Amino acid sequence: MKYVDEFRQPELIRKTAEEIRRVADPARQYHIMEICGGHTHAIYRFGLKDILPENIDLIHGPGCPVCVLPMGRIDDGLAIASRPGVIFAAFGDMMRVPGTHGSPLEHKARGMDVRIVYSPSDALKLARQNPDQHVMFFAIGFETTAPSTALTLQRAKKEGLRNFSVFCNHVTIIPAIRAILDSPDMRLDGFIGPGHVSTVIGCRPYEWIAKNENKPIVISGFEPLDLLQSILMLLRQLRAGEAKVENQYKRVVTWEGNPAALRAMADVFQLRPYFEWRGMGFIPESALSLREEYADWDAERRFEVPGIRVTDPKAAQCGEVLRGVLKPAQCRLFGNECTPEHPVGALMVSAEGSCAAYFSYEHRKTELTTLNAPA
Amino acid sequence: MAHGAGGKASRRLIEGLFVPLLCGASNGPLGDAAVVSLDGTRLAITTDSFVVKPLRFSGGSIGELAVNGTVNDLAVAGARTEALVVTFVLEAGLSTEILQAEVEAMAAAAAKAGVCIAGGDTKVVEHGKADSMYISTAGIGSLIPEVSVDPASVRAGDQILLSGPIGDHGVTILLARGDLDLEADLSSDTRSVLPFVEAIARVAGPSIRWMRDPTRGGVATSLNELARDCRLGIVLRDDQIPVRDAVRGACELLGLDPLHIANEGQFLAVIASEAAEAALHALRQTPGGEQACIIGEVQEQPAGAVLVTTRYGGTRIVDMLVGDPLPRIC
Amino acid sequence: MCLAIPGKVLEISAENASLALVDVMGVRRHVDLGLLEDDRPAPGDWVLIHVGYAMSKISEQDALEQMRTLEMLGEREGAMQEVRGYGLEEAPGKTPATKSPA
Predict the structure, then answer these.
(1) Which one, of B32, B273, B55, lies nearest residue B160 by Cα?
(2) pLDDT digits (tens, 9 = 90+) for C31-65
(3) Which residue of A has its CA nearest to C64?
(4) Which residue of B has its CA nearest to C8?
(5) Is residue A254 a part of any domain in this protein?
(6) Which residues form the domain of A286?
(7) Most buried residue among A132, A299, A326, B290 by CB atoms closer than 10 A?
(8) Count of the separate structural domains present in chain B
(9) Contacts of residue B316 in chain A, CB cutoff 8 Å?
(10) Do residue C5 and residue B253 have CB atoms under 8 angstroms apart?
(11) Which residue in A2, A121, A196 is closest to C50 by CB distance?
């Protein structure tokens, strides 16, 4: 598979891991946060923790758009879709996320018209194919996904397609990083930056992390060699006492980002004054809503939204795990009340949430296992 | 809905509700078929039902799945199917052409597998139910003398054999449903695996510890069930697991793991290490088994779990699914 | 947010210049090129696909350069070992080791 297999070559992976061992200062404990949920998933999927030295601690950041979505927003979306003649369309990631009265799939079992779509354009197609029904697309994602929603809305408006709306939960990455760095219990040496968000926003938006916070950040791809090379680049900066923004994912990320994507977003979206992030509280100017010109396609304006707020159980320590203060296994509910099958908190509901990923891929490994791994 | 997908929820439903109430004294591990004794003769029996949508897809149809699926459940229990009986539940208004096509497909599959469909039943339910057609089967088979499968006989060091590439059926169905707007040259792998069982029975019969046809929930679910039943660990090698390019492409696009995807014509066996090479050779000589391989082995750890290793030393646990595999974008 | 896969552009749709048929290891899907209107891909180009939209063209040159950098990692270390063998240590403050026997 071109542009994938080259970056999974076992020999090169070994070599890069060896170089990381050589460069890492054995007297130092490194705390590196990968911001993006996709990176968390890749780290576990490729078993990278097994080949990194013990003194590199990878901390999972808040870049999981499903995890940070408050349960009340799911309830609101399902409330709209429970109206007769409304089709609830969303990515597969949303289908098992619990609302107060069940997940979208559970609502489907009880008779709601729920469809999984791979693309927002597929949701628009559904609207064209079902002129007597209304398709409400439950949009989630960071800046990687927002431009696609924007383009879809531009097309809907151009076609004058009235039986389509978007329930917008797009969030932006920079305020989340700021919130992490502002936490008093934070102790991070550097960041692995979100590669696909950066194809849209470029590398410039991260400059303040290096300049003002004095932390290195390397924008990384998602294959094993990408992540390892990014970690190597971070270590080299740290050993040299540097703090720069570096782009490891050059084959798709440019410094300036994607101008057409940014234009589409600016045309369709505006920043909400504030938005609640599950596990992190209210963060100003961290989420998108539809501009006035697109009011007719805004599900929150077309329909009355209950505006339900649901607080997480006090026992759940999602916030601390999200900020990297606690490891998933250190949360008191982990593995008992809270598992991927019956998630209590944010980080269990999505496959790439730190707790779900750790639970599924890692926590039953024993010391014996790593000894038995082939040489 | 998750309870039908073959993973954790299904297992809880079966073990938590059905077995205690229906099977009473039975306390052995759950296999694909049951063995009963009739005047001293031991027979295997099984039942299965088929609710696939769409009814027809590249490489097969619901009728073929029904025949092959039942034959396979018996085969992996170490039995040759002697006869099948079939029940059709039909939605009122179903066209006779569609029904005829399915019956013909079943007859052809039965002839190919060398089994007799001894009888059946039909019910018609009102329009809106049964998704056009559901098929339910029961099969009865005679046990192959050389073979005796039991997860309790599995030992550390035993080898895991797989008959061929995984994920073909599940991905074919996913694409055939049409909602994802994906197209590929893929077909369901539905077929009888009895020839594979017979091939390894001839050369390594007494060394066969366990067999399974990895249907819903995929190889991961079957091997997790084994790991749980024998309380040992299963360690697989990533680079040994055969996956067709198009299956790989679809899984990468949709964020799915081929190990969780259903197969309808593949076969897993755990063989004692001294007989593994001979068994593998026999599989590869069997038509359709040319891509058979050893994908891993049984180890003491991680007990009760399945671990996948890479050539560069990375590892990950592969769990049973909760429900059906869902595409993801994150 | 993050699942994006490389695919090869097979053909641009005749009805809609913003739509392309893209191939991922034999799996084909229509992909929207609207985000790449400033630099439209042509058949044969590789693009990064996310939720049915092309996010970026993939630069073969940058990919090759990355591979070269990684391949050189081991070589650099090999060269360093040779240099150390001559007693020419890099580390500051250290007295050079005596020449080690061949």
Answers:
(1) B273
(2) 999 999 999 999 999 999 999 999 999 999 999 99
(3) A251
(4) B249
(5) no
(6) 71-170+272-302
(7) A299
(8) 2
(9) 44-47, 361-362
(10) yes
(11) A196
